[in-house]
Amino acid sequence: MKVNYSNIPKIIIALDFYSKKEAMKLVDLLNPSLFYLKIGKEMFTILGQKFINELHKLGFNIFLDLKFHDIPNTVFYATQAAADLGIWMLSVHASGGKKMLMSAKKALQSFKKRPLLIAVTALTSLKQEDLKDIGIQISLQDYILILAKLSRDCGLDGVVCPGKEAKKIKLLCGNEHKIITPGIRCFNDSAFDQYQIITPKQAKTFPIDYIVVGRSITCSKNPIKKLNFIIQSMQ
Ligand code: C5P
Q1: Of the candidates 19, 25, 83, which has an alpha carbon nearest to the alpha carbon of residue 47?
Q2: What CDD domains would the database entry show (predicted)?
Q3: What is residue 86's predicted lDDT score, i.e. its pLDDT?
């Protein structure tokens, strides 16, 4: 079957490995013009900026998913430092608040070619009761929508959110506001710690710009076969 990449969400592969060797086993099989790579806290803590440079040399666009959440001044300089790496996208927590989000946005003003700045709304691992634990009484869905709107009002480029909220967020924030959705699972996959999961087939029915796929691929015996299966399911 001929694959059409133009009418499906773009695919960001979460490189959540504990060693470079393991990560490169997968990276070496990927075409940088078809897939984006996401470097999170685990790999960045182990391998740092050198690894980002190496992936850039191979031609990959990198989403640096460090989810900054700190005082505005710290986030300003952290965002600038991240942008200096020449990455394609970076993330902050929307719950850091308006001043923090504006500060992250301001940090990118001096860059000719700046990365996309994306706000995490609610982690896809969170349930309603987890919000109660931290004193938030509103529904998880309202919480996500409030944070999505805040990110749009602060001039960010988009949000990370559960797929099921994508439609409402596009209506509220406009079609230009990018939607990035993790928690992608095929039918037989384990959910692991994720709660808000959707299948690749469902992802195609929502207005999602990018899906983030991690363990569905990285825990598979044949990651490329699994990746192809995910792509086929979205055709
Ligand atoms: O392995 P899995 O497919 O669950 O990986 C999801 C990836 O997306 C992880 O790297 C995780 O850090 C990230 N992520 C998430 N939920 C968010 C934001 C990012 O799962 N809200």
Answers
A1: 19
A2: OMP_decarboxylase_like
A3: 98
Return the pLDDT at 3: 85
Handedness of CA 94, 95, 97, 98 (dihedral sign): positive
Q: Are 148 and 124 in contact (CB under 8 A)?
A: no
Give the domain extent around 53.
5-233
Identify which of 17, 45, 124, 180 to mutate to test ligand 1's pocket (most ligand atoms within 8 A of the CB).
124
Distance 90 CA to ligand 1 centre (A): 14
Ligand 1 contacts CB of residue 144 (under 6 A):
no
- Whether the per-residue pLDDT at 1 is higher than 90: the answer is no
Give percent of the chain with pLDDT exceeding 90: 97
How far apart are alpha carbons 219 and 43 in whole angstroms?
Answer: 16
Domain count, the chain: 1
Q: Ligand 1, atom 8: nearest CA belongs to which residue? A: 182
pLDDT in tens, 9-60: 999 999 999 999 999 999 999 999 999 999 999 999 999 999 999 999 999 9
Q: Is 177 left (phi over 0), alpha (psi -120 to 50) or beta?
A: beta
Q: How confident is the model at residue 2 (pLDDT cuts 50, 70, 90)?
A: confident
Average pLDDT over residues 194-211: 97
